[in-house]
Amino acid sequence: MSKQFDVIVIGGGPGGYIAAIRAAQLGFNVACIDEWKNAKGGPALGGTCTNVGCIPSKALLQSSEHFEHAGHGFADHGIKVSGLSLDIDKMLARKDQVVKQNNDGITYLFKKNKITSFHGRGSFVKAAEGGYEIKVAGAAEETIVGKHIIVATGSNARALPGAAFDEENILSNDGALRIGAVPKKLALIGSGVIGLEMGSVWRRLGSEVTVLEALPTFLGAVDEQIAKEAKKAFDKQGLKIELGVKVGEIKSGKKGVSIAWTNAKGEAQVLDVDKLIVSIGRVPNTIGLAADAVGLALDERGAITVDGDCKTNLPNVWAIGDVVRGPMLAHKAEEEGVAVAERIAGQHGHVNFNTIPWVIYTHPEIAWVGQTEQQLKAEGRAYKAGTFPFLANGRARALGDTTGMVKFLADATTDEILGVHMVGPQVSELISEAVVAMEFKASAEDIARICHAHPSLSEATKEAALAVDKRTLNF
């Protein structure tokens, strides 16, 4: 007889493992199926985020930032460095160790919460008495039954037609994290989050980096003023960003990659590089799920169709994270995972899509929550804006990192905060104050009236809120 569970989660990434833990906390008997493998072939819980995404990329961003500081920034502080060299193998080994620590942490949490972990690929077999029959295809195939199924299978990197990933010359985010030597010349197709972060890593380590972006605007989803400020910083750093391009034939060989492309003026170009990273978005991962075996509905993108509560068209089958609509963000998946577990328990899970923060971990960092100025203009909403530059912030000066600003957008009548946008030092941490404020429907004046520690970067947030009412104190 197949093992029976109250909840089976398919996928052990941020959405899946968090859903499993919350369901277990609520008293359910929970199983989680995940197929990621570590270097030894064992389980590696954490999904794309932990294994080839958020976590390893931040490890390399930190390492590369240290290298750049040592080579260029320390001198300003009176610190002399001679004989600076790079041990790329050590750097990658540290990245791998950070990943392993996170893998092991999730394994510990599963044990702590008495979650049964299955290593293999989960797929639907059929509706069965007591729920749904799920096949686990691993070292040994077995079948389990769950009353509730939560699909959290994530997403895969989108390949460019005619340029399949080989993870040697043409790289996805996975291969971009495993380059064994600093390429002299590196190209990226796509200037989204992953592209900019990976481009930043290898530029700091010595690569000549060119970014080819099809769209005519840089970071179109970001507030235009913030995006322009960020691009100025990237241009100054030597990150070559070409906008409005059309990519043609891509040839990969022993000497590297040759990319035919046309610039915004319509002029034909050829770019020869050692490595090419393709970062043109991600696609929902429903491969091998056998959705058709139970009639699970997918949309035209291959994503699982869900309602506002993450319910699919099938009773007691839920889906969360990258495999459904909405932003492909780890923290969005986590919030949906918690909400679904609580809904299964009869509670009222909460996810507010209007207060999901976005972060790009470049230098300067870019972070935002809520609506952009161009969105407010498009919908004809009357608003007030306030900005404050890090150039006028004491802590930023002491850090020697004064690029960027904080920007508030508030309703012209009620002063309710509609969006907060930042580019500058450590804004990935500063954005949380804005998220909390917006979740509680705060006004810009609420932030302006709160005492912020001095000297701190967070004072720029207070000052930008003051700027909405044209009463900054330090600028």
Topology:
Blueprint (H helix, E strand, L loop, with lengths): L2 E8 L3 H12 L4 E5 L12 H6 L1 H20 L14 H25 L3 E13 L2 E8 L3 E10 L3 E3 L12 E2 L1 H4 L8 E5 L3 H12 L3 E5 L11 H14 L2 E3 L3 E8 L2 E7 L5 E6 L1 E4 L3 E3 L32 E3 L10 H15 L13 E3 L4 E6 L2 H6 L4 E7 L4 H6 L5 E7 L5 E8 L2 H13 L4 H6 L9 H10 L7
Parallel strand pairs: 1-2, 1-5, 2-3, 5-16, 7-14, 8-9, 8-14, 9-10
Antiparallel strand pairs: 3-4, 4-5, 6-15, 11-12, 12-13, 17-18, 18-21, 19-20, 20-21
Helix pairs in contact: 1-8, 3-4, 3-6
Number of helices: 13
CATH topology category name of the largest domain:
FAD/NAD(P)-binding domain
How many domains? 3
Biggest sheet record: 5 strands, mixed, barrel
Helical/strand content category:
alpha/beta
In CATH terms, what is the architecture of the largest domain? 3-Layer(bba) Sandwich
Mean pLDDT: 97
CATH class of the largest domain: Alpha Beta
* Number of DSSP E strands: 21
Helix content: 25-40%
How far is the N terminus from the C terminus? 72 Å
The radius of gyration computed from the alpha-carbon positions, rounded to a whole number of angstroms, is 24 Å
